[in-house]
């Protein structure tokens, strides 16, 4: 750990991108269509907007405290005990988020690729992979994310590009959906898919130039948001809203309908899903890392390596709690909404308090002068 | 140290202490006697010195003590190992002038006090004649093939470089052959190797630091770098790690590698060894540090990044299109050697629907009579291939041909006919093996060869999911490695713009004006600041021909040192 503060702006951007883009991409068009019918792209756009605000708040907070994470500066802003209590919520939330992401992907894999393999095995393989990798320091964490970003972006872009020949623009009209209340909640669900961007609080203390964190955030939200939007548009344009509602993972179906020219591989969805393991891994890896790093800071420990294996059973048990796929998605939606209050409202509250505090400090200083 | 030396007790007369306390210290190995004398000076009495040398080397029959008279008046003795030294030099350049007073000295009267200066400066025909008065160093000189002369009444010994060793010629290295490029390779002798480096780097910035490692072998180790380009931190770290080594014998550079690498449990090599002086020089010029060991034809280079292991010197000496194309095919081979068999296993056992229908039918037809699952079949064939490869490596050439024919028959035709393997499996195994041969660095290819087996097993259990998990695991490991402070996967991640130009393709030399900064060099300018004129010629194109004269003089004006890209 001798060389901290090595993360470049590009690395910060790629960490955010690969953390945001995860297993949520698979059911994303379904969430958007359920909420807004043909207004799905608009719902997604709203969701991206909400997520962007959240990310900007957390970045702003990080820039104001460039050597601390939310666990440490919350104690400074809220006072020691209140800050600790809030930090416990953050830690618990990200443990659950890790578990749910692993579970969701395990479900996808067992239903579409490894039909005979038990769910437990796929989940535990993924979690072990994340736990072993999480033993590295934050610079290696950055290298890993940086390395995988092209592998994450490429398959989605290829699938979208190849599927466009089946697209029907009429499916996208009318652009504005009907039920605005429903659309708002849908936007919240979409925004919840961006919760991984909370990792920014961990990156800023390790950045070479914390001032440039905002630039990284903007680029990350543009790229990952753009990809999400593109995917929703492509899915709706190919399938139409009614058909999407029948599908669990419309993105996967989109990959299935496409085939490479020359018919080299008959089904693209399995290849897509295999490559997509990388994206899911980076997401789980990031939230796992965030969890153990936060625990480390919470208890003011020296090292996070041992924690990595220590919390593995807890995450695994949490992952296996939902009974079936329907209950799982119910929980995911529920947790996502609650999560928004942790990842957006709580930082917003902190930011306001922090600004007021520093203003008061300035005020009193000027009085003294 | 007592343990390692032959246990036979040698009664050594400790004359100095004997004189003082009259004791005889016995049962010591010679080397520990030398160690005890490390502070002592040579005595002015010739008898004592002869006695001491006899005590040290007396058991060896190739050790020679020759008594003679210098200029017919001073008693002297000469110590050397007859097999390590050049007899002609001893006879003509040492004994002759010493015994036979040279003409220019005939008229002079030589007193004892002046003798050593007269000998060194006016008598001996040898540039490496020096004086030394430490006993232990004189013993060391004798061991290294020098001739030591002790003279009655002078408390200093003269040592003269008379070492003569058989060494093989500078040949084309066996492990790194090139089609286009220099044909020189390092040999075992470190002096020759350093000369090969110096001759390519006639600059005072090229520094060589020497040290000795190994209690018994006392191998000379040279740390070479270019001052002003190499990172001082790396140089210090190399020195630190090398000086911490405490071992009895160093037989090869590989011994050192195992002591200085960062993660000994990783399958990936973290030190790059090469037999080619040109490669070593290119690496030095990029800011790396080279370590040479006496007795090994390999130079170790640190720090390394993974991309180095699939680059060859030829990539740079050929035109960039050629170099890039070859490199791309090499990377493909690398990927093949790692995951091709596991992809095959997962396609066959888990996702046959991925294959085009006609091909799937063909595969199914080929596998019709095979009793094993695909993973067992592939693993068995891979193991057979590994055994075959290992068998051919050390065989004499005359037998090797026969074995490879048998191997081809067994692994190819016979296995298919006997129903042990399907023809497509054989094709897959063949491609994989060829792929692993295409990796230029043997050690890196070996790492992937080992990892291939674990991925095949994963593919057998989890199909494509397992393959991807395995590959992610390997990449994460590679990303977490560091070699002397430089991340192993640089310049890809952490990203480095200058370095990226030389990873997948080999960019034209004029696209890479700076050294890759991930090595933290102090000086990064590779090309001269003056613009390279070679490019402008390309751009002028046809105009050049029309103008006739403009092209020629311009090029001539550009002196060769400006064109020299390195």
Automatic annotation (TrEMBL), chain A:
What is its subcellular localisation? Answer: Membrane
Q: Which GO terms describe its biological process?
A: spore germination
Membrane topology, record value:
Multi-pass membrane protein
List, alphabetically, the Pfam families matched.
Spore_permease
- Flavoprotein found in the keyword field: no
Cellular component annotations (GO), alphabetically ordered? membrane
Q: Which residues cross the membrane?
A: 12-33, 39-61, 81-101, 113-134, 146-164, 184-204, 216-239, 270-294, 306-322, 334-356
Q: Which family does the similarity line name?
A: Belongs to the amino acid-polyamine-organocation (APC) superfamily. Spore germination protein (SGP) (TC 2.A.3.9) family.
The protein's name in its UniProt record: Amino acid permease
From TrEMBL, chain B:
Q: Topology relative to the membrane, per the entry?
A: Multi-pass membrane protein
Task: Please cite one Gene Ontology biological process associated with this protein.
Answer: spore germination
Where is this protein localized, as stated in its record?
Cell membrane; Membrane
According to the UniProt record, one GO cellular component term is: plasma membrane
- Where is composition skewed (Basic and acidic residues) in this entry? 532-548
- Which residue ranges does UniProt annotate as crossing the membrane? 331-350, 400-420, 426-448, 455-475
Q: What is its main location?
A: membrane
Q: Which UniProt keywords apply?
A: Membrane, Transmembrane, Transmembrane helix
Cite the residue spans of the region called Disordered.
Answer: 532-566
Q: What family is this protein classified in?
A: Belongs to the GerABKA family.
Its protein name is Spore germination protein
